[in-house]
User: Fold this.
Amino acid sequence: MALTRAERLVSNAEGMDAIVIANDGEPFLDSTFWYLTEQASGTFEGSFAIVRKDGSMDVIVSVLEEESASEGAGEVRVYHDREERENFIREALSGCSKVGFNMHSATYAAVQYVKKVAEGIEPVDAGKAIGETVSVKDEKEIAATREACRISSQVAREIPGYLSEGVSEKEVAARMDNRMRELGGSGNAFDTIAAFGAYSSQPHHMPCDYRLKKGDTALFDFGSKYGRYCSDMTRTVFLGRPPEILERAYEVVREAQLAGIAEYMDGAPANAADLAARELIDGTEFKGKFIHSFGHGIGMEVHQDISVSPRSEQRLKAGNVVSAEPGIYIPGVGGIRIEDTCLITEDGCEVLTSFDHSFTVI
Assistant:
């Protein structure tokens, strides 16, 4: 029988008697809570998921979330006031000494609160165990990711129809966001990047009022959410013929992406894809213009373990979902990025997003 998500987590949490996931409230809501409980809806502010080393899990929620919580995993304990919640926390952690917290997201206040309520515990960092667990997706997670990728891929195919001389970055980004919702997405994986002209050399440019002109690059980095899971992809097109240097850069980026994806396979060093793409780019006139890592893990958060950087010491595993996004950025001229969401498999890699990678002039 397959392990539950809670059982998988504790199998990676050596030396811990329990792990506490605390949902303090906006903006400190931890996606690990929804990963463990598999809740489809609900905000769950002020809620706790407490997993013990035997794999059992208490889900402590207010009466506001009682009905939603009953549809998920774990033993649901409903509190009506602060005292009742604290009693549930004490019971769940009875006999525990070393207690893990997600130090990547847990607030200092939340850790101190649990430490005060459950006297005698020693807080430790469970971030590595959580990262190792959530980075390997089960079939339910992969299905949701596929649907998120289907939605964003359809929008990518429609982008040329959204573009005309004089349209602004903000206008196109808003249309893409609305379209992802129309196609069934539950929200954006992140704020859509629409970068025209010289702005495309800024990897994290936010849409502004700049209007598209002939010869401009039009770069879009976007993703949808479906069932809480993210897609992530980038498409770069041109309104009219761009400067020749950007044509050359586009072909180099396309080749670099293929070189990196060829290194995506179960058991491979996670840095191999980045190093392959970087070596290809640095062997051209664009040496030093690839200024970020080749990829990152994707799940309920668009940036999640595993790291696909040149310094990564991790190894890829079947079930990892990662991006493949080489880029070349020339300040004052423009930038090129091509990105797909990929699933690591036993035999290699499956690209989950789909759109034309050829040089596209509109």
User: Anything to note?
Assistant: The chain has two domains: 5-134, 139-351. The radius of gyration is 22 Å.
